[in-house]
């Protein structure tokens, strides 16, 4: 068998060396001669300077090339670590909607900065598609809401409607149905400037705040992000403020019929289903009742509700990260404060505005053939996520468990563990706080995904205070386990947040009010339990396995809620199944392997477009990217597929596209905020995931197991993190 594998590897490499790649990096990739795949050369886990022992004119073995790629990637990352606090963080990029909203927010607050505004205009222009619209992900088509927001932001900034690029934008928007086809949040933004009627916006009365916390339709029955966005918006709804603007800055030209003739019941989200009695139609009729009440509310009840909403918001504004530490909630909180009578020079308003300004990103882009400075907004920061994932990758790449950089990163992560009870306690009472959040500061909103990855990272480190490390892991693990839902899976921020009826509310046209259990989180939690020394006998495992088997797609893949898409979900699940000791020969795992191998591109990589969320036919299809190639490789290797032709080709793709400085380049959105609505480009997904995949491959080929499995065996033998004894 060993002889066959060696022969196969050598033959496959001679073929792979001549496969052209689709990916064209902006910088020159590292040149390397054809590689020989061999399986009998042990790879060192320490940094290797391969350039010192060979010349570029000689053929190089694959282990040498992988050693060199890992060494350069490690060096690249070590140069990026924060020297004081020890975290790693990269930009988290969204689409143009946040920048458009930021322009609107500053105009609404009457605090327009001409320099910022001009730079935002340049950014919006640089992101316009040739057909005149704006997309919500790289390579995607024009999207109506993003296009309407960008067009209006440009007009608010003084750009004349007669400009050629504005004429193209108007024509594209009208071709998509005009402003009435935009989503609810866009219509709310327009209503604040009297560019859309409040009658055309679904009504959400502030009196919702008075419902008991455990009531079926309570504000706590929706997801964290919906709650943080909606509660300040309830205050805005109650006041319905309007910022008056000149007629020439309005967008009447985006209506397919004169605005006065629009019948809102004919358009989303009020257009009824064909069947008479459906949940959506019921809520549409309820909206009519709520609007009637809003014209003559019980003032004592409204004042009580406003006071409760304001109190909630003010309590959640404490800390340094802004409300919910996400831009939409932060922006709504500033508008709500103004509605409540806070002046612009009030310290609380100024603090909230500064926290938004920290999300600004300044770059350059090409507009009309010239390189100009631009400004855009990122939705939030991701230091916990970046640091924890990279720590896991660096351990797999052979960095010592007590390396100073990793110890510093571990100390940073431990310092960010939550100690405050947040909203999650409504669904998971009697639980000690101990999770981790995503951002620099978001104490009230830890999430399961970050917590699981942090726990995996901490379990692999040798910290100078092992007792503190053990206690941190104990608290974190118990919090994650307490968040397991009754269906066996895990949501991100809340337990059993799955009341699907909310998705029929007209306000919820984005279908993202809820935070139900997802396969990627279930897989991550299984991997976490294994990293802490547990196996299939742990009481949380069998319900999680049952959930994953129910949630598997017919083709063998798993849906990816927080990454694009089925490739991400399938990797997350297979990594967890291997770690917890599931039989890798099980038919449902082999179906997942077959699906992954069938989706490999001719260039050896994998890719998947955000379009796969809207159209199942695009599942696993798209231009190859480093991050998605790495996910597919790690999924296959987790399923026991290491010596296959598919894996060899995928490894070649990563080696071939690494740049000279040790990094990779990727422009695609491969992260998910809300499926079909909001996508993310994590700027370092294309860095630490390829490093992780190459390291896994090196370890499996040379030693027969991953470094994570070696560390896990140490943990199991010592019983370091077994808290059930």
Question: How is this structure best described in words?
Answer:
With 725 residues, the chain is mainly alpha-helical. Helix content is 45%, strand content 4%. The strands form 3 sheets. The protein has a 3-stranded antiparallel beta sheet, with no helix packed on it. A two-stranded parallel sheet has the order 1-2. The chain is globular, with a radius of gyration of 26 Å. The protein starts with a helix and ends in a 7-residue tail after the last helix.
Quick recap:
The protein is mainly alpha-helical. Helices cover 45% and strands 4% of the residues. The protein contains 24 helices and seven strands.
Distance between the termini: 43 Å
DSSP strand tally: 7
Enumerate how many helices there are, as a single number.
24
Task: Give the strand line-up of the largest sheet.
Answer: 3-7-6
- Look at the helices and sheets and give the structural class: mainly alpha
Q: Percent of residues in helical segments? A: 40-55%
Compute the average pLDDT.
91
Note poorly predicted spans.
1-57
* Percent of sequence in beta strands: under 5%
| Gyration radius from CA atoms, angstroms | 26 Å
Shape: globular
Q: What can be said about the biggest beta sheet?
A: 3 strands, antiparallel
